[in-house]
Every structure is written in structure tokens, then in C-alpha cells.
Amino acid sequence: MAFWWPLIVLAFAYAICRFLFMLIPPNVPSIDVDASDVLEDVNQTQGNGFIYIPSRGRTQQSDKKVRCYEPATMKYLGDFPALMPAEVEERVAQARKAQKIWAKSSFKQRRQFLRILLKYIIEHQELICEVSSRDTGKTMVDASLGEIMTTCEKITWLLSEGEKWLKPEYRSSGRSMIHKKAKVEFHPLGVIGAIVSWNYPFHNIFNPMLAAVFSGNSIVIKVSENASWSGCFYFRIIQAALAAVGAPENLVDIITGFAETGEALVSSVDKIIFVGSPGVGKTIMKNAAKTLTPVTLELGGKDPFIVCDDVDVAHVAQIAVRAALQSSGQNCAGAERFYVHKNIYPSFLSQVTKIMKSVLAGPPRGGKYDMGAICLLEHSDKLQALVDDAIEKGAEIVARGSFGNLGDQVDQYFPPTVIVNVNHTMRLMQEETFGPIMPIMKFSTDEEAVELANDSRFGLGCAVFSGNQRRAKEIASQIHCGFAAINDFAATYMCQSLPFGGVKDSGFGRFAGIEGLRACCLVKAVVEDRWWPYIKTKIPKPIQYPIAENGFDFQESLVEALYGLNIWDRLRALVNVLKMLTEQNTLANSKRNND
């Protein structure tokens, strides 16, 4: 006891000191970001609030500028340049120069950059959400959940664990290299390129940027032409934080434009991260193949939402409706196929219908729910075509909101719709919807649920609900997808230590988590002498040039001595190895004496 007592006292004192240290707030400077031109009342007084009515079938690309407007009101927000290839290449060249400096930065400096961002985000949540809401039509609550919380979680994880996963990782050196040390080093790749979607403009910028910058890279991000206004404001936040820690200029850049701009970025960077549709993803791959540029693709999803017959129906119905509405152009990970066990199908449908009917039509930012705001022009036409196809094949609408628009030319809302009697012959159950449509289908057995869930060309994620957690996990383990939530929906993305990505037409590669962080690195295997300079690599005499007559016999015995399954066979082989080495050395000494 006399021996342990001082150690206990020291441990207790250490714990107290750590606790007191945690009470000391970190010294994090504040940054000033000009937001005067993104405030709604300022825009109106400047005369920029006219209603923008684009012609149907007309693409913005013909204008060589990106025109931005509020999808909820169609109020004009501003124009941004559609960069030409030469301009993109110049931006990448500037980022490459900055990266060479930043690669030498310390993790302490990088963590301070993250803390400054985190402080600003927490203090300006309403502003960030308001900008996101205006540019995409999402509600303030959805903006907070999908933009603020996910980004803060990622920053916090990087602050806590980022350095740990970028330090050299030592591995087993194996039997033949026991005299060596084996490790993996993670070096910056250089310039990361990202082409991101519009559905979460704040997080879709910050997600690849945080990983790239923390791992020592620079990054050039092409924001969607449907969310350029918000993206350019969010860029100011990043610039101010970088300047506060003395980072080189052009370390992070935001570019605007159309397909031509994105193609130039793909051919200029050291890695490309793409978030978008499968069709564009294939084009990205084709262009990246010309320069063998590595890619990470996060593409579409058609996530199944499986409800077993032993759940709390009212509770799961609430989650299901939110999952369906989160797919309304706001969340690429929204559930789009709902499979409900036949035993609870009537009660589940009753609950869902009741909840859906409480969703009132109106501007999404003015209500409690996301009521089907559509960010993309003419997307409502596609959604209606999917519904019409299902109706023609026997489906039935059991609940639907009302349409809202600004005239005959623009349909910026699609009514939340619950549809039943669906099957997999319908386009609605096969194609990515990206809209507030909730198709519900019955199943009889767990095996049937798995079969239905896997009957898709997509494989992003899934959600499985059961009163028996083991049952839910068993079902989820059989679904071919990149992530699974057990008795929850989209919870995996809030665990930023986990990788995010899919399979099949949902893409490949991962961002977020350890895998996503290291995906921004040149992964280098390194082997060095363990006891240098005392023990060095020396080629055994029998296989030195000129190779001795018993060279192959030596190799055979060496292999068996190292990897033989039987310990006695390995010892016998080891004796043979030592015997041949001795004979060879004796022969070499004799020859040397004769000479």
C-alpha cells in the first residue's frame, strides 16, 4: 500500500489539474465578416428584390454568368461570373503555390483555424441559416440541423482526433522483416478540387474544405450554379479565419460557373471530390481518367426506410415523415422508399396521413415544416411525371398538400405526397426523387424487406426500425449500402468519426471520418532499420551474386522456417538455413585464405 499511495495521489492531482485546465477558455480571436449585402432588408432597399422569372427550357449557361435567386420567392439575389477554363487553371496554380507554404504549418496553427471558424459559426448561426434558407428554400430548423450541427460536429472531431489520425501509424513488420520498423505516413496530396451540390451550401463547402486544409492541402471548390450566392458569402468566413492565423492567400478558393468550369477544375487538381448526380459523376470520372486524377464520388440515393411490426408506430411515423420531407430537395440522404410490415401497415398509414395533413401550404421559412420547396427549376415537372407514372400503374394518393407557385411559369413548390399501392415496376420506386414524395409498400417477412431494399441501382444508406435491436441489425447487415441507421434516420452522418459514401450508382470512396481525412493524403509506406546502425540488411551468402548452387535450397528452407505451420518443421528448416550459411561462410573463408 505504501508503494501505491503516492501513485494514487499523483493520478488524482493530475485529474484535478486537467479539469481546472478545461475551465480556462481558449484564446480564440473573433473575425469580422461583412454581411451587409446578404441581409434581406438591405437587398430590398437597393432595388435588387425584383422577381426573376426564367424562361422554361432555357439554360443559364448561355449567359456566361450565374444568376441567383430565392427559390421560395424568386427574388433576384445577384450575378456571379461563369469562369472560363483558363481562369480556373490560374486559380488552381495560385492555390498550389499557397499549399507549398501551408504544408509546413503546424497542427497547432491548423487547430486555431478550426477554433476561429467554430467560434464564428456558433455566434452567427442565424445569419448562416438565413443565407442558406434564402438560397435553397429550406427552413431555418433544417438549415440548423444540416448546416450548423453537422459542420460543428466535424470541426469538433477534427480538433479532438484529427492530428492523431494524420500522424505516422506503425504497423507489424512481419516475420521476415522483424529487424525493420514499418509505418504509414500521411502527406498532403497538393490541391484538392471539390464540385459540390446545392442542397446544403454551407456544409457542402465546409465539409471538404476542413478535411483538406487540416491535412495540409489547399482546395478549390466549385459551388453549384444553384447556390452560388450563399457560397460566395460563406467564402468570406473562410478567408477571414485563414487570415487570422496567417495562412497564405489563395489556400482556399471558391469558383462559380457551369459544366465547363467544373471540367477545367477536374483536369487541374491532384484529387477531385464530387457530390452530385450519377450522370455527372460518370462524366467526372471520364475526364479524370485523362490525367489519372483520383476521385471520390458521392452520388444519388434511394434509401430504404424499413419498419418492422414490433415498433412504436406513432414514434416511427414521425421520424418517417421527417425523413420523407428531408428528401424534398434538401437532403441527398433522404429516405425515398418506405417498406412497412403488413401487420402494422394500416395503423402506420393512418399516423403518417394524419401528420402529413397537418403540413399546411405556404413559404417554407414561415412555417414549422418543410413543405416541398424545390430549388431546381422545372424539377416539379419531373416529380409530377413520377407520380403520374405510378398512378397509371395502380398506385393511389392518400394524402397531398396544395401547390404553390408564382404564376404559370414557375412552380417552386411540390406538394408533400403520400402514395400507396406502389411496386418496383414504377419509376417512383427506382429513380432518385429528391422531392417530398412518400411511397409506402407492404412486406410480409424480413427476407422480403431485404430483397426489396436491395432491388435498386443505388446503395447510399438505409434505416431499419424494430423493437428488437438484434432483428434490426440483422436486416441492416444484409442491405448493400454505405451506411445504416438502426432505429433512427441519418444518425450516421452526425457521427463524424464515421465515413460517408455509398456503393453502386451512389458512388465510391468516402469523405468524413478517418477514411475521409486520410483520403486527402498521399499514403506512403515506409520501412527502416529497427536497430540502425547495429543491425543492417545483409544479403545471405547463398543468394549473393554469383548465386551459389544451393541458393534455391536455401530459399526453400528459409520460407519453411519463417512460415511453416508446424513448429517442429520450422525448427528443422531453421537448422538447415544455419547449416547452409555456415557452410557458405566456411567456403568463402577458405577461398579467401587460398587467395
Textual characterization of the structure:
The chain is an alpha/beta fold and 595 residues long. Helices cover 43% and strands 16% of the residues. The chain has helices spanning 4-23, 40-45, 85-102, 107-123, 125-136, 140-166, 201-214, 228-244, 259-266, 278-289, 313-325, 345-357, 379-392, 446-454, 469-477, 513-518, 551-563, 567-594; strands at residues 65-69, 76-81, 169-171, 180-188, 191-195, 218-222, 252-255, 271-275, 295-298, 303-307, 335-341, 396-400, 417-420, 437-443, 458-459, 461-465, 483-486, 503-504, 507-508, 521-529. The strands form five sheets. A seven-stranded mixed beta sheet has the order 12-13-14-11-10-16-17, with helices on both faces. Helix 10 (278-289) links the parallel strand 8 (271-275) and strand 9. Helix 4 (107-123) crosses helix 8 and helix 5 runs antiparallel to helix 8. Residues 42-47 and 363-369 have low confidence and may be disordered.
Could you give the topology of this structure?
Blueprint: H1 4-23, H2 40-45, E1 65-69, E2 76-81, H3 85-102, H4 107-123, H5 125-136, H6 140-166, E3 169-171, E4 180-188, E5 191-195, H7 201-214, E6 218-222, H8 228-244, E7 252-255, H9 259-266, E8 271-275, H10 278-289, E9 295-298, E10 303-307, H11 313-325, E11 335-341, H12 345-357, H13 379-392, E12 396-400, E13 417-420, E14 437-443, H14 446-454, E15 458-459, E16 461-465, H15 469-477, E17 483-486, E18 503-504, E19 507-508, H16 513-518, E20 521-529, H17 551-563, H18 567-594
Parallel strand pairs: 5-6, 5-8, 6-7, 8-9, 10-11, 10-16, 11-14, 13-14, 16-17
Antiparallel strand pairs: 1-2, 3-4, 4-20, 9-19, 12-13, 15-18
